[in-house]
Amino acid sequence: MAKQAPHAFVSLGAPKLRSTNIWGRVSVSVLPLETRHQRRFGAVRLRAALDLPMTLGQWVLQQERQHPETADLAPLITATATAGKQIASLVARAGVSNLTGLQGSVNVQGEEQKKLDVLTNEVLKNALRSTGKLGVLASEEENEPVSLMEEAYTGDFIAAFDPLDGSSNLDAAIATGTIFGVMRSGEHCLTGPEDADISQRQMQCLVQTLQPGANLVAAGYILYSSSVIFMLSIGHGVQGFSLDPAIGEFVLTHPDVRVPERGKIYSFNEANSDNWDPVLQEYIRSMKKKGYSSRYIGSLVGDVHRTLIYGGVFGYPGDKKNPNGKLRLLYECAPMAYLMEQAGGIATTGKQRILDIVPRDVHQREPFICGSPRDVEDLLKIYQGSMAMRG
Ligand code: AFP
């Protein structure tokens, strides 16, 4: 019985190569077709490969052209991104490098410092110091604003940051983040009356850090999670950059972030709910009735990032035990509020816009509620209603 010829390849109209196969029949080779396909899809792949998202460095240069008034922020942004990459690497390797656990010291707020709290504070400080752009630096991990009498601290900017927020989650490999805000100093921090002594000058530096969030000229956070994401605003919307491990650069993956008008998630530490005021309790009950879901990480950067991307509301309110809540105004609430507003959202204490609060203290705490405009407005309406009732 004659062997049956294998099924000839179906042509899609491409030019064909004819050849004889082992059965002596003419067969249509797939080669030209494959070549065409390879050429076509190879070209598409090549284009896709060349169509790389903009790097943070390219974006910074673009901003310098589009918004020249922000040009002097460039070194600070670049330095923060570099520190973010170093911190991301420290966080990712914490388990293997024996960097989990406590440092054995306590910060000014009475919190036990993790090894990485201390290390990341140095990383960020050194990166910002090298820019020569900073006059003063305030950190969660520093008792007082740092205005060392050093040449490096001679710039016109003030930075406030939390180098590793959510570090209590670290040993369980849960998301953490760096939060920062940048303001301009009214006058050179270390200049002053000729006869001013060091403590007077330092006092002057301290006073300059106590500016409301409305004075921020840049703010952002870096999230260390399943990917490393740098969300940044310099006053022209919010841009999100992801760290591309293939090239070791942040690339623009979330251009012009807008928080959804309304979300489906509320995010509060409900364990505190018995101590909340009745308005907030009523608000959360109404959210449950509307079918909202609850999500809470206990890591501000992770919780705010989810709220920015998916919408909804996040809050750490005051309660009977802690009337001002837990979050620090200067380097947690204000930068997050700035980002939230730049993305079209709202950030409030429930009674006051976060960005309007003038700090009295570097480590001052404030109730903080932020998120989708419609969701936060619902809460504000209940607060306004209750105030009207009380007359
Ligand atoms: P840690 O830096 O001590 O982990 O605190 C994190 C944080 O300041 C903030 O990131 C969270 O939103 C908040 O505390 C969580 O606080 P609760 O554990 O009381 O919910």
Automatic annotation (TrEMBL):
Looking up InterPro entries in the UniProt record yields: FBPase_C_dom, FBPase_class-1, FBPase_N, FBPtase, Fructose_bisphosphatase_AS
Question: Locate the Fructose-1-6-bisphosphatase class I N-terminal domain: which residues?
Answer: 54-255
Molecular function (GO) terms listed?
fructose 1,6-bisphosphate 1-phosphatase activity; metal ion binding
| Cofactor(s) the record lists | Mg(2+)
User: Keywords on this record?
Assistant: Carbohydrate metabolism, Hydrolase, Magnesium, Metal-binding
Hey, which pathway is this one from?
A: Carbohydrate biosynthesis
- Name a Pfam family for this protein: FBPase_C
Sorted alphabetically, which HAMAP family does this protein's record hold? FBPase_class1 (MF_01855)
NCBIfam families per UniProt? PRK09293.1-1
User: Whom does it interact with, and what assembly results?
Assistant: Homotetramer.
Its family remark reads: Belongs to the FBPase class 1 family.
Q: What is this protein called?
A: fructose-bisphosphatase
Q: Which species does the entry assign this protein to?
A: Cyanidioschyzon merolae (strain NIES-3377 / 10D)
Q: What is the lineage of its organism?
A: Eukaryota, Rhodophyta, Bangiophyceae, Cyanidiales, Cyanidiaceae
